[in-house]
């Protein structure tokens, strides 16, 4: 009898084997979205707890990995949603004013972009993290979300559009002459420049 | 959105969100065991009240479903 069959029958040993086999991959997937290792540990446990509770609904001929990623993604989205509703995202009054010093400018712009991302709906935040920051293939993102690749593309489009609008409101968009200075020496213009 | 603009925003995002260590720091099985042994709390009464209120709201204001669908 296969491991997945034993798991579906409710054998604790099989669940432990699956847990040990997939915990690292699930953790890595979640941490890419939430960017916090402590939170990612909690959400990994929560993901496997849901997998364990739903074991009788799992079909042994199905794709366990895709199923686990789907549940992990939903847990991460729920976390982003709760964080989104809790955070007031305070913006300083002098946000649009120039900041002196290259390092300060870079840090400030980075902080503003992080704030702008946090104001997006949870699903768009997740798309930003996976598709734009982590550059995961659209196909992989689509499978984890259970949506079509075309939907991922349209969400990327919406996320970028809303991000640009938000950055404009924050006074970042017009900072066309500002440049990020990567510690590695790569110069990058800020969005909208 | 032009591809050119997309590239710039991607670069800015990658600089704003530095790479995070994706290596699992420890075996989480002991925590998992603890979680499995915890008693599972039932659904609290206020969740049922909220669910009822949402259903009633949909009956009287069906267009609210679109708003909810957008945010989900």
Q: Sheet with the most strands of chain A?
A: 2 strands, antiparallel
Fraction of residues in helix of chain B: 55-70%
State the helix count of chain B: 4
Mean pLDDT of chain A: 82
Number of domains of chain A: 2
Tell me, what's the shape of chain A? elongated
Please provide the ordered H/E string of secondary-structure elements of chain A: HHHHHHHHEE
Query: pLDDT average of chain B, as an integer?
Result: 84
Low-confidence stretches of chain B: none
Please tally the helical runs of chain A, counting DSSP H or I stretches of 4 or more residues. 8
Assembly of the depicted chains = heterodimer
Structure description:
- The complex is a heterodimer of chains A (193) and B (72).
- Chain A has a two-stranded antiparallel ribbon with strand order 1-2.
- The radius of gyration of chain A is 20 Å and the shape is elongated.
- In chain A, strand 1 (179-181) and strand 2 form a beta hairpin.
- Chain A has helices at 3-8, 12-34, 37-53, 64-86, 102-118, 122-133, 138-145, 149-169; strands at 179-181, 187-189.
- Chain A has 193 residues and is mainly alpha-helical.
- Chain A folds into 2 domains: 3-86, RNA polymerase sigma factor, region 2, helix turn helix motif (Rna Polymerase Sigma Factor, Chain: A, Orthogonal Bundle), CATH 1.10.1740; 102-189, Orthogonal Bundle (Arc Repressor Mutant, subunit A).
- In chain A, helix 2 crosses helix 4 (64-86) and helix 6 crosses helix 8 (149-169).
- With 72 residues, chain B is mainly α.
- Chain B has a domain at 46-72.
- Helix content of chain B is 65%, strand content 0%.
- Chain B has 4 helices and no strands.
- Chain B is flat.
- The relative contact order of chain B is 0.05.
- Chains A and B meet through helix 2, helix 3, helix 5, helix 6 and helix 8 of A and helix 1 and helix 2 of B.
